[in-house]
Amino acid sequence: QEYTAVKLKVKEWAPEAAKLVESKLPANANVFFVPATLRPETMYGQTCCFVGPKITYGVFKAGENDYFVVTERAARNMAFQGAFPKWGEYEKVAELPGTSVIGTLVNAPLSMHTEGVRILPMETVKATKGTGVVTSVPSDSPDDYATVLDLAKKADFYGIKKEWAELEIIPILETPSYGNLTAPFLVKKLKINSPKDAAQLEEAKGLAYKEGFYQGTILVGKYKGQKVEHIKDNVKRDLIDAGDAFEYAEPAGLVISRSG
Ligand code: ZZB
Q1: Which of 48, 56, 178, 207 has the most Cβ atoms closer than 10 angstroms to its Cβ?
Q2: What is the ipTM of this complex?
Q3: For the domain 2-249, what is the CATH superfamily, name and number?
Protein backbone atom coordinates (compact mmCIF):
# COMPACT_ATOMS: atom_id res chain seq x y z
CA GLN A 1 0.00 0.00 0.00
CA GLU A 2 1.44 3.41 -1.03
CA TYR A 3 0.43 6.06 1.48
CA THR A 4 1.11 9.75 1.75
CA ALA A 5 2.40 10.48 5.27
CA VAL A 6 1.35 14.00 6.20
CA LYS A 7 3.09 16.11 8.88
CA LEU A 8 0.72 17.77 11.37
CA LYS A 9 2.84 20.05 13.55
CA VAL A 10 2.07 20.36 17.25
CA LYS A 11 1.06 23.92 18.20
CA GLU A 12 -0.02 23.20 21.75
CA TRP A 13 0.23 19.92 23.69
CA ALA A 14 -2.58 18.52 25.80
CA PRO A 15 -1.50 18.91 29.49
CA GLU A 16 -0.77 15.20 30.09
CA ALA A 17 1.32 14.85 26.93
CA ALA A 18 3.14 18.10 27.75
CA LYS A 19 4.33 16.55 31.04
CA LEU A 20 5.47 13.36 29.31
CA VAL A 21 7.58 15.11 26.67
CA GLU A 22 8.85 18.14 28.57
CA SER A 23 12.10 16.64 29.88
CA LYS A 24 12.64 14.49 26.75
CA LEU A 25 12.59 17.09 23.98
CA PRO A 26 14.50 20.31 23.30
CA ALA A 27 12.31 23.37 23.99
CA ASN A 28 12.34 24.39 20.31
CA ALA A 29 11.60 20.90 18.92
CA ASN A 30 9.24 20.53 15.96
CA VAL A 31 6.97 17.60 16.72
CA PHE A 32 4.61 16.18 14.09
CA PHE A 33 1.71 13.74 14.25
CA VAL A 34 2.05 11.74 11.02
CA PRO A 35 -1.17 10.20 9.64
CA ALA A 36 -0.98 7.95 6.57
CA THR A 37 -3.58 8.69 3.89
CA LEU A 38 -4.58 7.27 0.51
CA ARG A 39 -6.41 10.51 -0.32
CA PRO A 40 -4.03 13.47 -0.34
CA GLU A 41 -6.55 15.46 -2.42
CA THR A 42 -8.91 15.53 0.58
CA MET A 43 -6.46 17.23 2.95
CA TYR A 44 -8.32 20.53 2.42
CA GLY A 45 -11.15 18.98 4.44
CA GLN A 46 -9.25 17.96 7.59
CA THR A 47 -11.19 18.89 10.74
CA CYS A 48 -9.34 16.81 13.36
CA CYS A 49 -6.84 13.96 13.62
CA PHE A 50 -7.49 10.60 15.30
CA VAL A 51 -5.42 8.40 17.57
CA GLY A 52 -6.41 5.10 19.13
CA PRO A 53 -6.99 5.66 22.86
CA LYS A 54 -5.60 2.19 23.64
CA ILE A 55 -2.56 2.51 21.39
CA THR A 56 0.83 3.60 22.72
CA TYR A 57 2.76 5.92 20.42
CA GLY A 58 6.43 6.71 20.28
CA VAL A 59 8.10 10.07 19.64
CA PHE A 60 10.89 9.33 17.15
CA LYS A 61 13.77 11.57 16.17
CA ALA A 62 13.39 12.38 12.48
CA GLY A 63 15.98 15.13 11.99
CA GLU A 64 18.11 17.74 13.74
CA ASN A 65 15.12 19.24 15.49
CA ASP A 66 12.21 17.20 14.13
CA TYR A 67 10.25 14.39 15.77
CA PHE A 68 7.42 12.14 14.56
CA VAL A 69 4.59 10.70 16.65
CA VAL A 70 3.68 7.27 15.19
CA THR A 71 3.48 3.63 16.31
CA GLU A 72 6.76 1.79 16.83
CA ARG A 73 5.80 -0.52 13.99
CA ALA A 74 5.47 2.41 11.59
CA ALA A 75 8.75 3.91 12.83
CA ARG A 76 10.53 0.65 12.06
CA ASN A 77 9.13 0.70 8.51
CA MET A 78 10.01 4.37 8.07
CA ALA A 79 13.57 3.68 9.16
CA PHE A 80 13.96 1.55 6.02
CA GLN A 81 12.41 4.20 3.78
CA GLY A 82 14.77 7.06 4.53
CA ALA A 83 12.52 8.97 6.92
CA PHE A 84 15.09 9.07 9.73
CA PRO A 85 18.71 10.27 9.97
CA LYS A 86 20.31 6.78 9.96
CA TRP A 87 19.13 4.02 7.63
CA GLY A 88 17.41 1.20 9.52
CA GLU A 89 17.56 3.02 12.88
CA TYR A 90 14.76 4.68 14.79
CA GLU A 91 15.43 6.51 18.03
CA LYS A 92 12.51 6.70 20.43
CA VAL A 93 12.82 9.67 22.79
CA ALA A 94 9.44 9.37 24.55
CA GLU A 95 6.29 7.28 24.78
CA LEU A 96 2.77 8.70 24.69
CA PRO A 97 -0.36 6.71 25.51
CA GLY A 98 -3.11 7.63 23.03
CA THR A 99 -5.26 9.11 25.80
CA SER A 100 -2.49 11.52 26.84
CA VAL A 101 -2.43 13.38 23.51
CA ILE A 102 -6.18 13.95 23.17
CA GLY A 103 -6.88 17.67 22.87
CA THR A 104 -3.45 18.50 21.42
CA LEU A 105 -3.73 21.28 18.83
CA VAL A 106 -1.93 20.65 15.52
CA ASN A 107 -1.52 22.46 12.24
CA ALA A 108 -3.00 20.39 9.37
CA PRO A 109 -1.38 21.18 5.98
CA LEU A 110 -3.86 22.43 3.33
CA SER A 111 -6.80 22.29 5.77
CA MET A 112 -9.36 25.08 5.46
CA HIS A 113 -9.13 25.22 9.27
CA THR A 114 -5.94 27.24 9.40
CA GLU A 115 -6.40 27.87 13.13
CA GLY A 116 -5.44 24.22 13.68
CA VAL A 117 -7.30 20.99 14.45
CA ARG A 118 -7.45 18.79 17.56
CA ILE A 119 -6.20 15.29 18.21
CA LEU A 120 -9.28 13.21 19.11
CA PRO A 121 -9.95 9.55 19.97
CA MET A 122 -11.21 6.95 17.47
CA GLU A 123 -11.83 3.45 18.84
CA THR A 124 -11.51 1.83 15.41
CA VAL A 125 -7.97 3.00 14.60
CA LYS A 126 -5.88 -0.08 13.86
CA ALA A 127 -2.44 -0.21 15.45
CA THR A 128 -1.30 -2.57 12.69
CA LYS A 129 -2.10 -0.33 9.74
CA GLY A 130 -0.46 2.82 8.41
CA THR A 131 1.06 4.88 11.20
CA GLY A 132 -1.73 4.34 13.76
CA VAL A 133 -2.54 8.05 13.31
CA VAL A 134 -5.49 8.90 11.05
CA THR A 135 -6.33 12.35 9.79
CA SER A 136 -10.05 13.05 9.71
CA VAL A 137 -11.95 14.25 6.66
CA PRO A 138 -15.64 13.95 7.62
CA SER A 139 -16.83 15.43 4.29
CA ASP A 140 -15.46 12.45 2.34
CA SER A 141 -14.73 9.61 4.77
CA PRO A 142 -17.82 7.87 6.19
CA ASP A 143 -15.79 6.45 9.11
CA ASP A 144 -14.62 9.93 10.03
CA TYR A 145 -18.08 11.45 9.75
CA ALA A 146 -19.66 8.72 11.92
CA THR A 147 -16.88 9.23 14.47
CA VAL A 148 -17.12 13.02 14.76
CA LEU A 149 -20.92 12.75 15.20
CA ASP A 150 -20.40 10.24 18.00
CA LEU A 151 -17.65 12.34 19.63
CA ALA A 152 -19.84 15.46 19.64
CA LYS A 153 -22.82 13.52 21.02
CA LYS A 154 -20.80 11.97 23.86
CA ALA A 155 -18.17 14.66 24.41
CA ASP A 156 -18.23 14.32 28.22
CA PHE A 157 -17.86 10.55 28.05
CA TYR A 158 -14.82 10.96 25.79
CA GLY A 159 -13.37 13.75 27.94
CA ILE A 160 -13.22 16.24 25.10
CA LYS A 161 -14.68 19.65 24.39
CA LYS A 162 -17.70 19.28 22.10
CA GLU A 163 -16.52 22.09 19.83
CA TRP A 164 -13.31 20.17 19.05
CA ALA A 165 -15.44 17.62 17.17
CA GLU A 166 -17.69 20.23 15.58
CA LEU A 167 -15.39 22.19 13.30
CA GLU A 168 -17.30 23.16 10.20
CA ILE A 169 -17.45 20.44 7.53
CA ILE A 170 -16.72 22.37 4.34
CA PRO A 171 -17.48 20.79 0.93
CA ILE A 172 -14.24 20.05 -0.92
CA LEU A 173 -15.27 17.55 -3.64
CA GLU A 174 -18.32 17.63 -5.91
CA THR A 175 -19.70 14.29 -7.13
CA PRO A 176 -22.62 13.57 -9.49
CA SER A 177 -24.18 10.83 -7.32
CA TYR A 178 -23.66 12.08 -3.75
CA GLY A 179 -23.38 15.85 -3.99
CA ASN A 180 -20.60 17.81 -2.31
CA LEU A 181 -20.70 16.11 1.08
CA THR A 182 -20.23 12.49 0.10
CA ALA A 183 -19.70 11.01 3.57
CA PRO A 184 -22.69 12.67 5.30
CA PHE A 185 -24.82 11.68 2.29
CA LEU A 186 -23.79 8.00 2.44
CA VAL A 187 -23.98 7.78 6.23
CA LYS A 188 -27.59 8.94 6.02
CA LYS A 189 -28.46 6.83 2.99
CA LEU A 190 -27.07 3.60 4.48
CA LYS A 191 -28.63 4.44 7.88
CA ILE A 192 -25.31 4.31 9.71
CA ASN A 193 -25.85 5.22 13.37
CA SER A 194 -22.48 4.61 14.96
CA PRO A 195 -18.77 4.22 14.19
CA LYS A 196 -19.30 0.55 15.15
CA ASP A 197 -21.59 -0.20 12.17
CA ALA A 198 -18.62 -1.88 10.51
CA ALA A 199 -20.30 -3.63 7.57
CA GLN A 200 -22.26 -0.57 6.40
CA LEU A 201 -19.21 1.65 6.87
CA GLU A 202 -17.14 -0.69 4.74
CA GLU A 203 -19.76 -0.47 2.00
CA ALA A 204 -19.95 3.31 2.31
CA LYS A 205 -16.16 3.57 2.13
CA GLY A 206 -16.09 1.58 -1.12
CA LEU A 207 -18.77 3.75 -2.70
CA ALA A 208 -17.11 6.97 -1.53
CA TYR A 209 -13.69 5.93 -2.86
CA LYS A 210 -15.03 5.04 -6.28
CA GLU A 211 -17.20 8.10 -6.72
CA GLY A 212 -14.65 10.52 -5.26
CA PHE A 213 -11.81 9.26 -7.39
CA TYR A 214 -13.48 8.64 -10.77
CA GLN A 215 -16.24 11.26 -10.71
CA GLY A 216 -15.05 13.85 -8.21
CA THR A 217 -14.18 17.46 -9.00
CA ILE A 218 -12.22 19.53 -6.54
CA LEU A 219 -13.98 22.65 -5.22
CA VAL A 220 -11.13 24.40 -3.40
CA GLY A 221 -7.45 25.22 -3.58
CA LYS A 222 -5.16 25.72 -6.56
CA TYR A 223 -6.71 22.89 -8.64
CA LYS A 224 -10.28 24.12 -8.13
CA GLY A 225 -12.62 22.91 -10.90
CA GLN A 226 -10.39 20.00 -12.01
CA LYS A 227 -11.09 16.26 -11.87
CA VAL A 228 -9.70 14.43 -8.80
CA GLU A 229 -8.31 11.72 -11.06
CA HIS A 230 -6.10 14.28 -12.79
CA ILE A 231 -4.84 16.26 -9.80
CA LYS A 232 -4.49 13.69 -6.99
CA ASP A 233 -0.78 13.18 -7.68
CA ASN A 234 -0.19 16.93 -8.04
CA VAL A 235 -1.60 17.59 -4.57
CA LYS A 236 0.62 14.85 -3.19
CA ARG A 237 3.66 16.27 -4.99
CA ASP A 238 2.90 19.80 -3.73
CA LEU A 239 2.69 18.55 -0.13
CA ILE A 240 5.99 16.72 -0.48
CA ASP A 241 7.73 19.67 -2.16
CA ALA A 242 6.55 21.96 0.64
CA GLY A 243 8.09 19.59 3.21
CA ASP A 244 4.64 18.80 4.59
CA ALA A 245 4.52 15.12 3.57
CA PHE A 246 6.53 12.11 2.39
CA GLU A 247 5.80 8.76 0.81
CA TYR A 248 5.25 5.84 3.14
CA ALA A 249 4.86 2.31 1.88
CA GLU A 250 3.32 -0.44 3.93
CA PRO A 251 5.24 -3.67 3.44
CA ALA A 252 3.01 -6.37 1.97
CA GLY A 253 1.82 -8.92 4.53
CA LEU A 254 2.78 -12.57 4.40
CA VAL A 255 0.85 -14.24 1.62
CA ILE A 256 -0.16 -17.81 2.32
CA SER A 257 -0.76 -19.91 -0.75
CA ARG A 258 -4.10 -21.70 -0.77
CA SER A 259 -3.35 -23.76 -3.82
CA GLY A 260 -1.68 -26.51 -1.86
C1 ZZB B 1 -7.80 10.61 4.80
C2 ZZB B 1 -9.01 10.17 4.10
C3 ZZB B 1 -9.97 10.94 3.49
C4 ZZB B 1 -9.12 8.77 4.05
C5 ZZB B 1 -11.03 10.32 2.89
C6 ZZB B 1 -10.16 8.11 3.46
C7 ZZB B 1 -11.14 8.89 2.88
P8 ZZB B 1 -8.07 1.48 3.34
O9 ZZB B 1 -8.65 1.78 2.02
O10 ZZB B 1 -8.94 0.59 4.18
O11 ZZB B 1 -6.63 1.04 3.29
N12 ZZB B 1 -6.58 4.87 7.87
C13 ZZB B 1 -5.23 4.95 7.73
N14 ZZB B 1 -4.61 4.28 8.72
C15 ZZB B 1 -5.59 3.75 9.49
C16 ZZB B 1 -5.58 2.97 10.68
N17 ZZB B 1 -4.43 2.62 11.27
N18 ZZB B 1 -6.77 2.59 11.22
C19 ZZB B 1 -7.93 2.98 10.64
N20 ZZB B 1 -8.00 3.74 9.53
C21 ZZB B 1 -6.84 4.12 8.96
O22 ZZB B 1 -8.12 2.85 4.13
C23 ZZB B 1 -7.16 3.83 4.02
C24 ZZB B 1 -7.72 4.99 4.77
O25 ZZB B 1 -8.04 4.54 6.10
C26 ZZB B 1 -6.77 6.15 4.91
O27 ZZB B 1 -7.12 7.23 4.01
C28 ZZB B 1 -7.13 6.68 6.28
O29 ZZB B 1 -8.18 7.59 6.02
C30 ZZB B 1 -7.62 5.49 7.04
F31 ZZB B 1 -11.98 11.05 2.31
O32 ZZB B 1 -7.07 9.41 5.00
B33 ZZB B 1 -7.88 8.19 4.76
C34 ZZB B 1 -13.75 6.74 1.40
C35 ZZB B 1 -12.51 6.95 2.23
N36 ZZB B 1 -12.25 8.36 2.24
Answers
A1: 48
A2: 0.98
A3: Valyl/Leucyl/Isoleucyl-tRNA synthetase, editing domain (3.90.740.10)
